[in-house]
Specification:
It is a single chain. The chain is an alpha+beta fold and about 260 residues long. The strands form two sheets. The chain has a seven-stranded mixed β-sheet with strand order 1-2-3-7-6-5-4, sandwiched between helices. A five-stranded antiparallel β-sheet has the order 11-10-9-8-12, with no helix packed on it. Strand 1, helix 1 and strand 2 form a beta-alpha-beta unit. The longest helix has 23 residues. About 30% of the residues are buried. The chain binds biotinyl-5-AMP. The site of biotinyl-5-AMP has 29 residues, from helix 1, strand 3, strand 6 and strand 7.
């Protein structure tokens, strides 16, 4: 039986190394589902493949959610897509509130990035623990840039990252954004699980960057170049490499010749 919304428990830190690290630790120690670890600042915020996530104090929402979805392991990636779609809609609403005729410019870069006008505003990091091929715990880490100006980003990110404040000129209250976002995510997550993820692939594809474009995919030990054909029914990327369709479960994507470096 799932917890009700008012049982969501938020643990707040002024500073922590990584909310994901703490949430993974708590989850393994039997911390309850829908425990949220949030910090004003992370000193070792992490992205995928142990990359760094810039998390300066008070300028963004850095938080992690403990979940235990009753799903087959092969559906884990769908949670990534559900999370990205939910935050995409949330960001779009904030931008639409500000610009009366805002264009639909929030896009998803498979598998876990949310970009506005080509700049990254949010990253998502799923970490799971398994036993005998069964999912024990899932931690969803979310980094959402809120109040940075361009100068708050390190030089590397000045041209590749953005924040809600850069887009709308407004300052956002972390507590309120967290509450509103959790509210939406709680609903979207349960709806997706209750409906066996119906429509998630279609919705994601409608909002996905680089459809039918030439991309380079970094798979760690080698790279592939090909055209994105879409997603399969598990949310894996379908890539046309010289006429052969490859199915990709994880990797890093770049548009060829775009100069992107996100
Ligand atoms: C991600 O990784 O995008 C997942 C980031 C998840 C961060 C959250 S914050 C709360 C929770 N606790 C954690 O410790 N982590 C999670 P990846 O796709 O690997 O992207 C990482 C890359 O994004 C870096 O190499 C930079 O290029 C870029 N980057 C770093 N910080 C950024 C920021 N604040 N805004 C935009 N881009 C950033």
């Amino acid at each position: 039986m799932s917890l009700s919304k008012n049982q969501i428990k938020v643990i707040h830190y002024k500073e922590i190394d990584s909310t994901n690290r703490e949430a993974v630790r708590l989850a393994k120690a039997n911390g309850s589902e829908w425990t949220i670890v949030v910090a004003d600042k992370q000193t070792a915020g992490r992205g995928r493949y142990q990359r760094n996530w810039e998390s300066p104090a008070g300028l963004g929402l850095w938080f992690s959610i403990i979940l235990r979805p009753q799903i087959e392991l092969e559906h884990l990636n769908m949670i990534n897509l559900v999370t990205a779609l939910c935050i995409k809609k949330f960001i779009q609403e904030k931008i639409d509130d500000h610009f009366s005729n805002a264009q639909d410019n929030v896009r998803l870069k498979w598998p876990n990035d949310i970009l506005v006008d080509g700049k990254k505003i949010c990253g998502i990091l799923l970490e799971s623990s398994l036993r005998k091929k069964k999912l024990l715990n899932l931690v969803i880490g979310i980094g959402l840039n809120l109040n940075q100006t361009v100068n708050d980003f390190s030089d590397d990110l000045k041209t590749t990252a953005t924040s809600l404040k850069i887009l709308t000129g407004k300052v956002y209250l972390l507590k309120k954004i967290l509450r509103d976002l959790l509210n939406k995510f709680y609903d979207d997550y349960h709806e997706a699980l209750n409906n066996d993820f119906v429509d998630i692939i279609e919705q994601y594809q409608e909002n996905m960057l680089y459809q039918n474009e030439l991309v380079q995919l970094d798979l760690g030990d080698h790279t592939l170049q090909g055209y994105i054909c879409g997603l399969n029914n598990l949310g894996y990327l379908l890539l046309d490499v010289g006429g052969e369709q490859k199915v990709i479960s994880a990797g890093d994507l770049w548009r060829v010749n775009s100069g992107d470096s996100i």
